[in-house]
Design brief:
The protein is of the alpha/beta class. It has helices at residues 15-20, 34-41, 60-67, 81-95, 104-108, 127-139, 228-237, 255-267, 280-285, 287-296, 310-315, 322-335, 351-364, 381-386, 411-427; strands at residues 2-7, 47-52, 71-75, 98-102, 120-122, 149-151, 189-190, 195-200, 203-204, 224-225, 243-246, 273-277, 298-306, 338-345, 368-373.
Amino acid sequence: MKILLVNPPNCGRSIPEERYGIDSIKQIFRGEPLCLEVLAGNLADHDVRILDLKAEPDTLQDILRTFTPDIAGLTSITCEANTVLALAAEIKETCGATVVVGGIHASNDPEFFNRKNIDFVVVGLGKASFKELVTSLEEGVASSNLPGVAKTTPGESLRFIPRKYSMGDLVEEKPPRYDLVAQYRDTYILKTLNIRMGFVATAFGCPYDCSFCCIGALTNGRYLTHRTDSVLRDIDLLGDIPVIRLLDANTFGDPHHAGALCTAIKEAGIQKQYLADVRSDTVVRHPDLMKQWQEAGLRAVIIGFEEITDEELQKLNKKNKAAVNTEAIKILHDIGITIIGDFIISPDYDEPQFDELTRYIQDTAIDLPMPTVLTPLPGTALYKSLQERIVIHDLDYYTLTNAVIATKLDEQVFYQRYANLLKEGHSRAKL
């Protein structure tokens, strides 16, 4: 079968820009669609293409007419969900392909896609279940009994058979099809430093349950790790790309696995640099592991500090302490690993809280602070707790840079303070 996998174009709207002319909140990196490369890797018996509309906008019609796919698979984060509906309609009108939607938003809020022009919704880690759906469609048999897959029934609720995710869902023997995005490879760079970057997965899921996070739905809370040999294979497949982003929710979620992978990279003589996600409490408990990874090429870590007080961390169910965050920063500075620090700014912030966060970032000398706005994404625990306070329901604004609940401060003041934080952080950014 002919299968087209589509990465949506850059989309999402900006309240600070539209209402107040604040246009300094910009995306600083666009990476390859690893989720689609992973799906394609398990479809070797089919004619598969990947269309990255972030790299090449306005090219959907061309490929629909020249390739005429039998199946079109679309992925979506929350702020792309409305755009995916429009793409699905365009695909149906142009070539009538079977349209399948998966990804983060589908996994957390599948009913959103239970609509005309969409035929199936795939939830969770979809490498195995999407292949099962494709096989079912090719054989012309009923496709309503596949775990993790639902046939759309507009006007009625979707019916899913729960999927019990296991190591088998990783289908490790089938590597990602990096070759299918070769024509876009030169666009996958960190523009601020002009660094070419490739994506590799070492794990899926996360063993924690932060209220704001949408990762858990991918594996129903399980944490699945790739074998070291498959990770080394994928790094090798990326050729001469100098920097590898380990695209996991928590690369070091299993310290034993992380240590074994680090040893394997060293023994293989791989000369790369790495960016990875880690929790601050993991850094504090395993400083030697971080040192070993630094020696293997770990250049920077992304840490979700989120907040700077225990009270606010508890509200997010972060299961961490502010003192642990500060200790982790010192450890990483001493080792020589760059820190990209994620912070969550609540719409309930007042001026003193903005001041305190600004001082904290300055005092701890975090290399690249990345503040976002607290956003209750549909399907998360945070969404359920804040649902009655939501004043903006248009998912185009769910970019993590808009306040979709009312701000305590005057709205323009809130966004100006937010923009100032971003500006200061980026002005001294270094990786």
